């Protein structure tokens, strides 16, 4: 009786949210390598003056008219695009001139439209109605994942029975048998990444889910946007410089001794009178805190006065950061992104096969009822 109840709840939920889940799945797959594609597109716009060499960090700061409070992100490879960040906004800079790069408008517009559909069912901007439908459908999708696992489990655990829903089968008699096999096979193999993607989506969509995440860490959710954690203490921030500061290029060279495998260095630009500067040496993809080493350095001597590898944030904040980038797979690097993209494609197939199976079942029930009434 329980299995029958779960089955019908699963079927009804699929019909209610199926179209919206399909949109999220397809757009999610299209967004899989958004960051890499946009970076490649921007890199193609870099114009190299004849005979020019990449500028130093200090020259780029001067050319870009950077100011305290911004963050300069320098790539390990000379000649790669440099970024100047102010909060969530980032400007790409030509490493040879320090000029702002216009980027690739077509690529940015495409991904902007796809992301709009993914989040709000609107390619032109935020829609409260679309946001409600997406968030609700994602919550229903979480139920579909959980109930789907329950329905997948065989009544008897025999390999001859299990393999029918675990492996693709050939020479099936009709489309219904194929859809049934595909629905079970794609469902079980994509179960774990889909659960992570959908669960983290719920956490980002609903304040109550976000509060539960922080509660699991024994914390209260922050009010507003939390500040990025820093290893620089208030006393360090209040200390004034005494002497001639080293160049940022020289400071990065010293910081390399602390993190020789770095891929990018992020310099949090201090005020002119500040004695210390924070430099983050990142050996990951930019969102993996475990591969980041934060250094507080004396601007005059280059001495490292404080250091931390990994995030200085609280457990709750780290879990929230995990949710943000596990949703896209970026937390686990290129492999994680690939798995997330494949899981999104699997979700699209699950919607198609599930709806096809459901329509066939309801059609059979309708025909049977009509024949009984005749």
Automatic annotation (TrEMBL):
Keywords: Membrane, Transmembrane, Transmembrane helix
Transmembrane segments: 7-31, 132-153, 186-209, 331-359
InterPro entries for the chain: PepSY-ass_TM
Keyword hit for Membrane: yes
Protein name: Putative iron-regulated membrane protein
